[in-house]
Structure formats: structure tokens, C-alpha cells
């Protein structure tokens, strides 16, 4: 059990270190860095490498932004097998829609509750 927490911390930390290095060393903007990490997660899932990583690292691989790219590709590939080319489009939205919807709803509630500094 302790090893599971250790590897989740190490793998999640390494993903964050890569993101920070992209900010500091490569001088990428936050948008470019996030996009790059999403694409890396998508590519890793496309090659079948992200699922073994999540099996090994648990939350260390499912919490960072790379997991979003993994979810997009994973959903698209699953629905492509069932529904063909149209499944590529519908699959990625079905898998990620709950997370995106929650972000929009909680962001709206936060905007209603808190007063912005302006």
C-alpha cells in the first residue's frame, strides 16, 4: 500500500516537473504547455502506453492534465470500434463530458459566490 502512494507521488511529480521545465527552460506559455501535455497523454494512449502507466502509478497518472488527452483518445478509440468513423467524434465527448460539465458548473457557482477583485 505504501509503495502505491510512493509511485503515485513520484510519477505525478515527474509529470509536474516536466510541465514546470517547459515553463522555465523552454519558455512556453501556460496554454502551450497544457496543450503539449494533453497531446503527450493522447499519443501515449494511442500507442497503448498510458493504461499501463495508470495501472502502475494510479492517481499519479490519472490526476495530471496528461490524463485528459488519454481520456479523449481512449473514448474515441472505443467508440470507433463500435460505430466506425462517427464514433471517433462522439466517443471523446462522451468520456470527457462529465468532467468538462463539472468544471463549467463549479466555475459558475464560484463566480456567483465570490466577488472578483477588480
Automatic annotation (TrEMBL):
Look up and give the organism this protein is from: Neobacillus rhizosphaerae
Q: What domain of life does the UniProt record list for this protein's source?
A: Bacteria
By what name is this protein known?
A: Stage V sporulation protein AE
What InterPro entries does the database record attribute to this sequence?
Spore_V_AE, SpoVA
Give TM regions.
6-26, 33-50, 85-114
Query: Is Oxidoreductase a UniProt keyword of this protein?
Result: no
Q: Which UniProt keywords apply?
A: Membrane, Transmembrane, Transmembrane helix
Respond yes or no to whether keyword Transmembrane helix is given for this record.
yes
